[in-house]
Amino acid sequence: MKDSLYEQAYHHAIFNKVLDTMLYNYIVKNFNGTSKEIEINELKKAGWVASILADSNTDIHKQRAQIFASLLYLLYSDDVNCNKLSYVIFSRTGNLLATKFLSVLYDYDSEQNPSHIQFKHEFGTVLDFEVGFKRNENTIDLNNESIITTDFQKKLWENLFEPNHISISAPTSSGKSFIIQSYIKYKFNKLEKFNVLYIIPSKALLNQVSEQFRRILSKDILIKTAFINNQVNYDNPKYDKVMYVLTPERCLNLLNQKNDSFSPDFIFIDEIQNIEDEEGRGVLLEYVLGDLSKTWPKATIVTAGPNISNSEVLFSNIFNKECVENETSLSPVFQIKAIVSPNFAGNHLDLRVASLQKTSQRLNISLPVDFNVKQETESNLGALLSKVVKRIADGEQSIIYSPRTDFAEKWALEHLNNLESKASNTLRELIEYLKEEIHPKYFLVKCLEHRVAFHHSKLPELVRKEIESLFDSGEISYLYCTSTLIQGVNLPAKNLFLISPRKRSEKLSPFEFGNLIGRAGRIKDSLYGSIYYVAKDNSDEVLAEKYFSENYQKEVVLATSKSLKKDNFIETELKDRTLDTNKNKSGYTITLLKHKYLSGKNELGTYLNNKNLDQSQIAMIIDELESQLVNIELPFEVLKLNPSVDPLLQNKLYQNIKEEGIIKWVISPNPNFHKRIRKLDLEKYEFNDLSFYWQFSILCKKINEIFGITKETFFKHNISNLYIGNISHFGFRWLHNRSYREIIEEDINYYANVREEINAENETDINKRINDVMNIHSKVITFTLVKYFKVLADILAYSLSDEEKEKYKLILSLPVMLELGTMEPIMIQLISSGINRSVALKIYNEFEKEQNYLEMDVIEWLYKKGTTLQLKPIYIKYLKELGYIH
Q: Per DSSP, what are the bridge partners of residue 400?
């Protein structure tokens, strides 16, 4: 009966008519248009219907009620009675976060305990009790402070204190990360010993997440972004509370730790939907998570992702364990979805906003413009976008989505036309940093002068972090972003513009599109967010309509399950012994199956059973793998250290090492180690008598012959004309503490004066080389090269005696050194403590000036001397945010 009442309310004609009119009036109000009249009796009736809908247990009903409450406040913010009604509706939907905007109802003080706020106006006896009880119910006491939550957040908070594993599925703006952070903070403060493992999908998020925790956690908690065996003395009471923020790749070292020094009590996996990625990382994540749950069976596991249907099924498929599901589609903000179309005939923009009654209906608004619509539409997308953004959201913070890195930069530069240069002092600090650390002619410098920026995976970590921080604080107004947004980078904004819903050349899936537009609107400073899809022609409008009307939820399927369900998987792909993972996504699943087989037939059989394969299919897979792996010599204990690398190729490397002798595969210190040796003179030396440069370069070449690094670089990372000699040279400079500026200058000089392919004074040429250098370092040097040098190091660690391990310790440490970008132990300590490499270089240069610095702990020294360091303001600010300088 109640369900029927809520459905009637949801479809109530007057309610929906008023809702649409309110939405129309609010939009035209922002564009100085003429609003439509709403009769007072219809507004009251709509309010009554909304108050009924707010009590429903169905998310779409609550969402509709919330939209009414938001628009009522936005249109009648000075009316106390309208504010009261908005408050009651927000309270009933469980969205107490939104009530902070209703400031006319109480004396709001951001420092005040939210549970003690006094209302200035009475609601009436019954309602006073209702809103007071609800506010108290949704208040969480977090040690010495209180926080107000939504119903979803409160339920999640309560579940975290139960002895259950949890799967979370909620929109980007739902506040799930805030509750997880608050819970971790609470547990660290309450318990004498507590360890946390926080897994994020990519290195792009390492600093963002670790810095967030450094801001809220006390100094006696060790927060690390890399696990390095034997680096920290965990017997020290100072480290009874440890937190690791790691990518799946970095989890491998943790899983294979030698002394079992770290054992997590709580494991959180963010952006769990990445487990369906068929490009290799999804398969690795599945492998890592499976091992985590076996290694630490008592740890509480929590997974989280947006818009996932049946998240508890996904959890069970990964861990083979039960969990409590925390799922909601309700966001504390509502979204205005609009299609912007150029109108050539009238030389204006048609703004068509999705009706709140039916997605096929539109509220039409005509926007006059001061530019030639036809000319701009036919000239280039960047020019059109910048003018549309300026017309619709002039002065408002906006994210403009770009499908490609080069488009993001090009469109950002287009946006500078007709904008005044008005960079703040904070922006100037970043500008000066970029000039010094990257290049004076870097396009980002020019953009920041106008409070415009671009954000993509090729930016250095510190630059990306500063842009995120400056956008969050409002210093940057317009941000041109690529698909890094979809990968979990937390960058919400009031407005999101897009003109091409693609990720490189592929169309975004409805799930990806939903994740992207989820960035529009943040309850921190607004009740709503706006998405503007710029449609150039009729076909674009049709596509926009389709995207806006899609269901963004989906059931996430493991990458391995996708491969195993292919009709030709066993007969064709599994039996193809030359299968190239660079060209066939199933290769990653086959690699995982090989590892499962080598760990024991029972392991593989159980795994395939859990995938719901029949016994005949399982038998065929096991028989085929048995025939392929019969000659494997390398023990599984070594093979398993690198689960994303084909055991057959690992075994080939092992056989080559045995045939050629270990001395041909290690880096040997010698009198020529730092000597410059010409390529022509190489034949005069034995391998172990060569300089470090040539030993490293030759090893890169030999590894490439086995694993195909250059092929992977081309097919997987789309980097062409990069030879193994170039890769080894980049790696050498990276290892030797060269700054980005030094590497970039040398690269520009090489391409300008040696190869004569670019003009060293041309801005476009310079920026092309800057992006190429950044791309090579992020995807090849610190990822691909690291992956295969780790295989070599692990095989050597197995093959060497203890005496030889000490003698050739450099090669065993090389994978960590390559990833972190240094061979200096002090630098490694700084970087693995969460300090960016560029900042660590500056600190190290100052630390070296100390007498007896080798006998000192650099972190303790930084705590004591940090405020006296002669560093640029941007470095000091960065170290203060991390808590290393007070």
A: 480, 497
335: β partners: 529
213 contacts 245 by C-beta, under 8 angstroms: yes
- Contact between residue 638 and residue 798 where contact means Cβ atoms under 8 Å apart: yes
Please write the tens of the pLDDT for every residue from 750-794.
999 999 999 999 999 999 999 999 999 999 999 999 999 999 999
Distances in Å between the Cα of 292 and the Cα atoms of 229, 252, 296, 557 are 17, 10, 6, 20
Residue 274: which of 541, 558, 68 has the closest Cα? 558
In this prediction, residue 235 carries a pLDDT of: 36
Using an 8 Å Cβ cutoff, are 832 and 225 in contact?
A: yes
- For 471-504, how does the pLDDT look when each residue is reduced to its tens digit (9 = 90+)? 989 999 999 999 887 776 778 889 999 999 999 8
DSSP letters along 138-202, please?
Answer: TEEEETTEEEE-BHHHHHHHHHHTSSS-EEEE--GGG-HHHHHHHHHHHHHHH-SSEEEEEE-SS
Model confidence at 154, in pLDDT bands (50, 70, 90)? very high
Q: For residue 258, what are its two tokens?
A: 């030698």
pTM: 0.93
Longest dimension (CA), the chain: 97
Contact 91, 135 (CB under 8 A): yes
Are the CB atoms for 815 and 789 separated by under 8 Å? Answer: yes
Among candidates 736, 733, 729, 766, which has minimal Cα distance to 751?
Answer: 766
Which residue, chain included where needed, has tokens 């003179």? 681
Question: Hey, what are 499's tokens?
Answer: 């003109």
Give per-residue pLDDT as tens, 55-91. 999 999 999 999 999 999 999 999 999 999 999 999 9
Task: Specify the 3-state DSSP secondary structure of 618.
Answer: helix
Predicted local distance difference test score (pLDDT) of residue 359 = 56
> How large is the C-alpha radius of gyration of the chain?
29
CA dihedral 862, 866, 870, 874 (to 10 degrees): 100
Q: Which of 259, 240, 264, 236 is nearest to 860 (CA)?
A: 236
